Amino acid sequence: MSTTPDPAAATADEAETEADTCYVGPIRIRRDQQGKTTDRRLLEWIDPRDAARRSDRTMRDSWRVLRIQSEFVAGFDAMSEVAEAVTVFGSARLHPESPEYSLGVRVGRALGEAGYAVITGGGPGAMEAANQGAHQAGAQSIGLNIELPFEQGLNPWVDLGMNFRYFFVRKTMFVKYAQAFVCLPGGMGTLDELFEALTLVQTKKVVRFPIVLVGSDFWGGLLDWMRDVLAARGMISPEDLDLLTVVDDPDDVVAAIEAATP
Ligand SMILES: C/C(=C\CNc1ncnc2c1ncn2[C@@H]1O[C@H](COP(=O)(O)O)[C@@H](O)[C@H]1O)CO
Q: What is the pTM of this model?
């Protein structure tokens, strides 16, 4: 049996590889990677029994560190001039006609009028609402967007915006440049952001950091569960509940933040 490579077969292989490949600028992307976000490629499970893919992953991840580093640098640069600021989280799915959306606009406006820049995830729904309020108040309206599997621009009320590829880099910016978090009603993303903030405060990674939940009808059930289940079963301390302030009025959002400001 001949061991000489068959040139025709090699050409066919190359053709197949090229067909499976596209280029974005200088970056070559296999077709099966297209539509995958950077975060997804970072977190993707590789079968540890596949030695070739494991070694490929090692090489890619080493270079990835430089991209992560550059995203931190770009974020720090973009945010370096931000003065007093509050990060507002909330549902990406709020309809502009909904009462929660108009509450979000009023919260953004109240924060802006009180002199705070407003930082959001830069997307639609509650983020857009808070950015709108801040912009209309003449305050700095900041949107820190995230690369998603579908195309999404920054909402039109963002004055200073940035698109992040890595969730954890973006999350660092939300905390680092804000002195408080405000949560409007929201789903998984909002709950993730809320509980990350709570964990940072509980473990004293950040101090004097008020977390304000807007909408007692929306958040009341969660607080009841935290008290009746988490605290009652010793999973959190009863004092941990004091880390959260629930309000309904946008002016009370500002008051809660100011009460915690030294
Ligand atoms: C699902 C839709 C849009 C998604 N676009 C987002 N853009 C920016 N930031 C987002 C987006 N989705 C979630 N986030 C972050 O999580 C929070 C909202 O998540 P929830 O699950 O909707 O509560 C928000 O604070 C963002 O930081 C619809 O078009």
A: 0.83
